[in-house]
Amino acid sequence: MTPAGVFAGVFLLLAVYCAVDPFNHSAMSEFPDFEAVKVQMPAWSEIPAERDHENLLQKSEIRFLNQVQGPESMAFDPMGRGPYTGVADGRIIFWDGHKWNDFAYTSAANRNFLQLVFTGDDSGRVLKYDPNTKETTVLIQNLQFPNGLSMSKDGSFFVFCEGAIGRYDQYRKPYD
User: Fold this and answer.
1) Could you give the C-alpha distances from 75 to 2, 11, 18, 23, 79, in angstroms and in order?
2) Residues near 24 by Cβ (< 8 Å), separated by ≥ 6?
């Protein structure tokens, strides 16, 4: 058998192995109902080309290097304490001026977030919780991996990212 024939045979066996996945090595093996969704990306002409012309990041400093894994948005409470941030293992932590402290925990089920990103799942939502009435309201739904939510200074709107498709959006509808 020629080297080209051996290569073709190995390539064919590898392709069959990947298609069948007998040992469930695929990242999607735990999701048998997986359905691919086409993500519509904007045209290149619609993507802003503006960059940091003043090099403002050159004046910044790196804080908390190797202390927190996968921090999301940073937030401060009304008394100026913090920052508070969510990290990769589902905890919400805050900085007390000396060290990071646990503030809250989220479900361990969130560990499969990469599957949400890769599949284009649009089941994401932004919720509003009223601590007085203990009611939760859906503000926006059908989002692809929403994250990075930040409230404006005057509280009139908030912005968020749809991480799976790289979209940055704002929500101005009255939500009080």
Assistant:
1) 64, 51, 44, 43, 11
2) 30
Query: Do residues 153 and 168 touch, judged by C-beta distance below 8 A?
Result: no
Alpha-carbon gap, residue 127 to 136, rounded angstroms? 7
Digit-coded pLDDT (tens) for 135-159: 888 999 998 888 888 888 888 888 9
Exposure class string for 32-41: b at 16+ Cβ within 10 A, else e = eeeeeeeeee
Cα–Cα distance between 172 and 118 in angstroms, integer? 29
Structure tokens at 85: 């941030």
Tens digits of residue pLDDT in 97-142: 888 888 887 765 656 667 777 777 788 888 888 878 888 889 999 9
CA 57 to chain centre: 23
What is the rounded distance in angstroms from the CA atom of residue 126 to the CA atom of residue 38?
A: 22
Which residues fall within 8 angstroms of residue 77, CB to CB, at 6 or more apart? 84
Q: How many CB atoms lie within 10 A of CB 66?
A: 5
Distance CA 175, CA 96 (A): 31
DSSP letters, 90-134, are SEEEEE-SSSEEEEEE--GGGGGHHHHHHHT---EEEEEEETTTT
Residues in the chain: 176
